[in-house]
Amino acid sequence: MKNYFFLAFLLLLTNYTIDLSAQDRKETMFLSGTDNENTATWDFYCTSGRKSGVWSKIEVPSHWEQQGFGEYDYGRDYRTYGKKFKFADETGIYKHSFTIPENWKDKDIFIVFDGSMTDTEVKVNGELAGPIHQGSFYQFRYNISDKLKAGENELEVTVHKNSANASVNRAERYADYWIFGGIFRPVYLEAFPKEAYIERVAIAAKADGSFSMDAFPVNAQKKQSIYAEIIDADGKVVKTCETKISPKDSLVTLSCQVDNPATWTAETPNRYSVKVSLKEGNTTKYELKEKFGFRTIEIHQGDGIYVNGVKIKIKGINRHVFWPETGRCSNARIDLDDVKLMKEMNLNAVRCAHYPPDKSFLNICDSLGLYVLDELAGWQNAYDTESGSKLVREMVIHDVNHPSIIFWSNGNEGGTNKELDDDFDIYDPSKRPVIHAHHKPGNDFNGIDCNHYENYYSTKKILEDKLIYMPTEFLHAQDDGGGAASLADFWELHWNSKLGAGGFIWNFSDEGIVRTDLDNAIDVNRVNAPDGVLGPHREKEGSYYALRQIYSPVKIDLKKLPSDFDGTIAVENRFHFTNLNECKFTWELVNFVQPEVREAGHKVMASGTATAPDVAPVAKGELKLNLPSDYKKYDGLYLRAFDQHGNELYCWSWKTNGNRKEVLKLVEKSLGEDEKALLEELKAQGVEEDNILPIEQQKGDDSGLSSKVELTENNEQVILKASGIAVTFSKKDGTIQTVTNDFGLPIPFGNGPVLVSGNAELAGVSHHEAEGAQVLEMTYSGDIKKLSWTMYTSGWLELNYEYQVADKQLFTGITFSFPESDIISAKWLGDGPAHVWKNRLQGGQLDVYQRLYNTIMPATNSWGDQFKGYYADVTWMEFNTVDGKFTVVAQEPDLFVRLFSFYGISGPENYPQLPAGDISFLDGIPPIGTKLAMGISNDTWNLGPSGELNVMEKPVSRTLYFYFGLR
Asked: What pLDDT is attached to residue 854?
């Protein structure tokens, strides 16, 4: 039992100090715990699998697999692979004793189950409470007043993991997710006054202030009425309405008008409360309170989706209710954290896949602002009409008053029973639209096509037709693919199309379960469940960062600061309801730490705020930063935007002077005229001389640095040596063969440079001296136009090269070998913290990062900051190895650095293929595909322009500096 006695005490204290002093309210008593962290211990017997055949104890709520009982099964194994489920005969029997309060003897008492998997038979004191409930994700209840007795009562619950209803199994069990058993949501008693009460209410409140409410009285008496007070967020009663009822009434409707209500949207989640009273004269016989929001949802055929008269675009994601240690048994803290993460990614919508969620999740979506698609279960197979009609009723009456829900979804990907389409309106007075979430064309409903996993060009074709297009799944995020890969292309397509309504990415987090039968290893069922842009415990992956930028409602496209930058930045407002003058903008001028500093990161040198511009929703304008005139003396500029609630939307970052400043700070070499001029400019801008390291400024007579560079050669090799560093080059192919220094072990960096694509063959080697440095010229036939190495007296080695490769290429650039076994860590100045792909470059922030070597890969059951990958816009990178450190500095921007062997999507052949070598310096990197529709081969062009392979329209010239000594 976990925290239960204390929690139960608090709950009882709350109930009995509030509810018992007011007999006109519902009273609640929990029989189970309230969530996965606060549970109650019941007696339990499992019929098969682990720990079966004996009476034991179990925590409730929970899945019995996570308590060590039964067996694990993944749903689609049955359908896809023809496996027989282990749980076919798995049944759990629960027993629990309870005593009701003495003052409940004259009340209507219900036992309520918020969720049980799946067929659930309930007995109280040996009597059936009612029909066996079939369906896992829905609240159900029985009136057990006539079955209770004074003193101790016995509850027995039999839960069959497999349903006796074949359609329930097809809809819920044979699905693409983990299948569990047990009472996984709370169980509690509700007590109502027997003489008269209001069972529930269903609210329809529109943006124009019209308020309508269906109330369901029970045991109504003569001369009674229902009275409603509408209360705003400040506690002020803004309207009242009343209607009389008769003893035969089981449904009455109240209506009134509120002037100028604060409306609910995902950007402005304004909520009201309604206090509903059953009165007899001036006496209140019963009372309840419900929160709601004023908002109107409309589908304009052939146009779009409108909220409160404004056309919106959905920035959505799919979410399972899931936590690795406890499966679908969750808690409000997890729900809150998930909604916060969605808001951080600048999402405005969530699809509850593939079943209705916990009540707390919907409450949080209401309060923080997310549009919700609430879905009836049915993964590629539908409930039959008899069972489905009951479950639609249970879902809708449970969720109807949440303003965040703007759509009902009648099943997923063929799991739609069309005979149920009309049932939703029966219980929903606001008449929310119903959609069909399908994976095949031609299943549109209510004017919306939700077809799944179309590629960019088929999406474009759909958007040129007549239907609104809102894919309820797209860009399947298995491993490191999909998610935000090519999302910018898709989003621009939807944003700029009349019929584009946005869509829902698959999926929020990897569905990895802690296997209690496998030493608590996390299992994602190979390629089936690592589908998230977050890890199982919500570890942030690359798509998380890219989503933040792509979906930022403040859109800034400035890639680099122009040389004449005056602080003016073009900005687009992609809010639907918010003027940018309601937002906040701040700027920071920063200096980045250098490689020799132990810590990573930056130091803020100056900061300020910018006046938020007056830019209406979906309009464009300008943002003016009042930067100091000497802003270029600092390394970088950060710009942060915050919404009207104070939440950071995104941080943009730029270098103030390209890479030149960093080169001068780091690279010790003889100065040419250009470098001398820049050195004087940096000094004039206030850069401290200690941070500028040209050899003339640093070398003294006792420095130990060479006065000249030594060059030796034979028929096979050329060796350059200075300041204790020696580099040997092959005359056969022009590659580095060995690197040694006087400070430690040889550094096994070499076998390069070679092109990662294209061909080049060494034609000749020559050398000459230039101001004390030695220059090694290499000529090639093929795709390398020119290449030279220069060693300076400081030991720094400069590589200049120019190349051009024809045709489309996965990657372009040069590569070297280095044993992965020797790497300890890397530290770099560039975009981070995540690695990138050609079609997922967004989301990086310029900074200094450092990371220990690790072998974390997608879908390896290990989650964290992946070390290996492609890193963007690297200015310098320091490699810490068992052989010593070495540093590489880039003179030009936009360099990608590839670190070692990795993959994006696992499969028979991991995808995409890698360049040769181990450490590569690249100008072009591969795009990443997705699991579905586009496959896992090189056909990523289907994802849109950014999914195309690399084409070099002109030669690329680069200068890299290498240092293999101590600093």
From this structure: 95
